[in-house]
Amino acid sequence: PISGACPAAVHATFNYGGKIAGKVHVFREGHLWEADPDSYFEEGAFITYEDALPAGLLDVQAAGSQLGAHLGLMWFYAHVTRILIALGRQLGRVVVLPHFLCLCERTYYPVLPTCTSPGSDTVLPFECPMEQVFGVERWEASGFPFRPASFLEHSRLPNRTRESMAQVALNPHHDQQVWRPRQAFNSATHLWELDKAPPRAPHRETLDVGDAIDAAAVRQLRALGRHKVLRLSGITPQMRFCAAGDDPDPRELERLLGELTRQAWCCADDGPREVRYAERAEGLVSPCPRSPSQLQDGTGEGDAQQPQQQQQQQRQQ
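User: That's the sequence. What structure does it adopt?
Assistant: Structure tokens below.
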């Protein structure tokens, strides 16, 4: 027996990530899963996105409803994650998911119009686990290497990894207020605040990619291979990944992107409904624009992701 120790039991409650995969993952998020070997923390290099959200994504009034704002927020996370997956494959880096904020609870019970389950004391928005956003079981079954959002804060992560982090701004002109976690309640939960100051990092790099990550941008990121962690910033809703041709298997990349960020369900007033919030990210992997004017031509969710002929038809309408 350990002298002075107070025994405690932690139970993983029901979740939407699968019977085993979801419960193991929620323990990992809370730094309570000790079964991972040291190599899980010590080997490999990583890529992640800074924990920052454009202020407008949390504007419920502009979105028209709490649910509308939530789905827009979930689409942005799907968009960012798809870019991380594509870059992770080409750079040989393990994807570390960003911390997620949710504006609605995911539950079997009716949650509208409040977006919280009956009897819940949840205060919106709240920092939510992966299973509220993506299918954990699907990710685990895919074999694609990834780490939970709290991974870089884990006590088992070597100091040499923490000290070998580069903050990479993909769009330095994308200067706006963002929500980001500032105060940690514990090792896995944070208080989010509105500001402009980027988080500190031992090393900073700037890549002005505009609205398209092309092969040249990938080469610049690959040149930062001495850093164990690349933390990206400046991803916009219009940004595309157009270097898929350099992927070892472009078709497998497309399949993986569709599989891992395919869909989730949420938030109906009379029970669960399947909501394909990630569909707006289809077409993320596309040919690079031929000129800067074509980069500026897209307006985001629709224009930047459709063939030029469809864009012209939309404008005529």
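Residues 278-283, 291-317 have pLDDT under 50 and may be disordered.
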